[in-house]
Amino acid sequence: MKVTLLYFDDCPNWKVADGHLQALSSEIDGLEVSRIEVTTPEDAERHQFRGSPSVLIEGHDPFAEATDPVGLSCRVYQTPDGPAGSPTLSQLRQVLT
After folding, report:
1. Whole-structure pTM value
2. Nearest partner of 37 among 2, 75, 6, judged by Cα
3. Domains in the chain, CATH or no CATH each
């Protein structure tokens, strides 16, 4: 399974998501994680980047809403503990298994 982490370097939350994905790659056989840094508004449009971090599973963002804006910004995720800058390890595990 191919997972792509899209990130904007000015938003530090991508490092949390990256750590979760690295942990899951040792748990889930065949999980391939790649990273793409989004640096321009044109990159954001091309990737339909809904904020940093964004996790694509086989090209699909399981956390995105159709109304989420595209652009260079930090993203907010709804987690069991309230709003956060990254999905939890458990949320990522759930969408990957």
Report:
1. 0.91
2. 6
3. 2-96 (3.40.30.10)
